[in-house]
Design goal:
- The chain has about 110 residues and is an all-alpha fold.
- The chain is built from 5 helices and no strands.
- Helix 3 runs antiparallel to helix 4.
- The chain is elongated.
- Belongs to the complex I NDUFB7 subunit family.
């Protein structure tokens, strides 16, 4: 994957910085699978959930911010993968490919 990304001129990884430190995430007992660029939003969300006894109508602003961050990361990864696929197809065929992401959404990056 990394060789294909380098050949396509796509930088792997997220453009978002890692805000929460490993020590903060360990102290907040964030599972390893959730220690990404959105962990700084997950920490206050989990604290709110515990304080509010996981009531679904509580902590909505925190949950919305966390889910938006996760969505943006997924869209960024999809855009990176689309660029890699387009470069591979162009190299193999020399033709035009149809993108998986609409042009309006792809302009987020």
């Amino acid at each position: 994957m990394e060789a294909a990304a380098a050949a396509a001129g796509v930088q792997l990884g997220s453009s978002k910085p890692q805000i929460a430190t490993q020590a903060e995430m360990a102290e907040a007992r964030v599972p390893l699978a959730y220690r990404d660029q959105c962990a700084h939003l997950l920490i206050p969300l989990n604290k709110c959930r515990v304080a509010e006894y996981y009531l679904p109508w509580k902590c909505e602003p925190e949950r919305h911010a966390y889910e938006k961050c996760q969505y943006e990361l997924v869209m960024e990864r999809m855009l990176q993968m689309q660029k890699i696929r387009e470069a591979q197809e162009a190299k193999a065929k020399g033709g035009v490919s149809i993108g998986l992401i609409p042009a309006a959404t792809a302009k987020l990056a």
